[in-house]
Write a structure and sequence with these properties.
Layout lengths: L3 E2 L4 E5 L2 H15 L3 E2 L2 E5 L2 H6 L3 H13 L1 E4 L7 H6 L9 H9 L2 E6 L17 E5 L8 E5 L3 E8 L5 E10 L3 E5 L4 H18 L2 E6 L7 H24 L3 E5 H8 L6 E5 L1 H15 L5 E6 L5 E5 L5 H8 L9 H18 L2 H19 L2 E3 L13 E3 L1 H16 L1
Parallel strand pairs: 1-3, 2-4, 2-5, 5-16, 7-14, 12-13, 12-14, 17-18
Antiparallel strand pairs: 6-7, 6-15, 8-11, 9-10, 15-16
């Protein structure tokens, strides 16, 4: 077939380790034979972030804002061990955190459901989407290792230099740790708008959960902003769509989640969303079976896999060993980016190609050909065959070619 022509580039953010290897294979085998792929490329691999003092991440975020669509490979967020391993000058911040802050985005994560792999929670019949507030909290916290006895205080000084608040956090009688987190009304409002709009698009109920009974200022502010915006702008639209919004304490939301049928959008603060999205993905099957899209208030979108760089498989790969790394979420990052690019540019053939790529990937799983991480999750009696990553991509490529013929 003649290659599909793109009119506008999308922003390509390369990554690290095993996902970087799969990234190139997916492009070469599943996309470039059919699409005249146009991208503005940024290498977010850890060594390039070190070489540019992380400026490459900032440049990539600006490019996504400029073009409206980005596709990102998984990247390493270094800890102390990684600093030593990669000989880094410092422990660089999470690239995802930087992108989210600069794009003012909300992260929506949804499991990829396959009929022959049922969720471990028996009541779940439909996917559960997690909306994660992608700003502030512990990801931008100020921290201090308290060396010994002393007083820790929370102080606020207004723009004029006048101290307007001071409260003792704790009188330390021994060494400890200290952390200060923050958030902004503007970011919380953007998060709430994104969640209400996404729920309307999905036509699904929206839950928002926090712990305002304990956090009477921080979490309560989230609760109030959601309630105000719902009453002022979204209540009538929700009622017309036959869906509802409700606030729940996060412990009640977790309990309710285990008994619901799914098909809901669950909005969480930054840290809560980070943890709960992994729980939901694993309960539906695998971290490698979850889509992740960062949505900005202006409609800018950045697509990525929700899992990490699969370090253990990468070390095996470097030894020349075959690995059975699941590429589904990375494929869906590419397909999501291509579909969005096609929507914005009025290219229905590009949108269709992205959908066919997803269909071919899921059809491969339905036919019982899958990476080994999924073998233990298939329904009893279903015949499945575990293959390595290369064979799995080959099987997808065959089905993709058949569908496009």
């Amino acid at each position: 077939m003649e290659k599909i022509q793109m009119t506008t580039p999308l922003v390509e953010l390369d990554g690290d380790e095993m996902t970087r290897v799969l990234w190139r294979k997916i492009k070469a085998e599943l996309i470039e034979p059919y699409v005249d792929l146009r991208t503005e490329y940024y290498d977010l691999g850890l060594l390039e972030r070190e070489a540019t003092k992380d400026q490459v991440t900032v440049d990539a975020a600006r490019a996504i804002a400029r073009y409206g669509v980005g596709v990102k490979c998984a990247t390493i967020t270094p800890n102390a061990q990684r600093v030593e391993e990669y000989h880094l000058s410092r422990m660089w911040k999470s690239p995802n955190g930087t992108l989210r802050a600069l794009l003012d985005g909300t992260v929506f994560r949804t499991p990829i459901v396959v009929k022959n792999i049922h969720p471990v929670v028996r009541t779940w019949k439909a996917p559960i989407t997690i909306a994660r507030h992608a700003y502030g909290d512990i990801y931008k916290a100020a921290e201090y290792r308290v060396p010994g006895e002393g007083k820790a205080e929370l102080v606020f000084t207004d723009k004029s230099g006048r101290e307007t608040f001071r409260e003792t956090i704790y009188d330390f009688e021994c060494p400890g740790v200290l952390q200060g987190t923050y958030n902004k009304d503007t970011s919380i409002c953007s998060f709430a708008h994104a969640c209400f709009q996404y729920a309307l698009n999905l036509k699904q109920d929206l839950w928002f959960s926090a712990k305002d009974t304990i956090s009477k200022q921080y979490d309560h502010r989230f609760k109030d902003i959601f309630a105000e915006l719902y009453e002022q702008e979204y209540k009538a639209r929700f009622e017309a769509a036959g869906i509802r919004y409700k606030y729940m304490l996060i412990d009640s939301a977790v309990a309710g989640l285990m008994q619901c049928q799914g098909g809901i959008l669950w909005a969480c603060k930054n840290y809560d969303g980070d943890v709960m999205s992994d729980m939901v993905a694993t309960a539906f099957g695998s971290l490698a079976m979850m889509t992740s899209v960062l949505v900005s208030p202006d409609g800018t979108m950045e697509f990525e896999a929700s899992h990490g760089t699969v370090t253990r498989h990468y070390y095996k790969y470097l030894k020349g060993e075959k690995t059975s790394t699941n590429p589904i979420a990375t494929i869906f990052a590419w397909s999501g980016g291509l579909k969005r690019r096609g929507e914005l540019d009025g290219l229905p053939e590009l949108v269709q190609f992205g959908q066919v790529l997803e269909d071919a990937s899921l059809e491969t799983l339905k036919d019982g050909v899958m990476t080994k991480d999924l073998l233990g999750l298939v329904e009893p009696g279903f015949q499945a065959r575990g293959v390595d990553s290369e064979e799995f991509l080959d099987e997808i490529a065959k089905r993709l070619a058949d569908k496009l013929a």
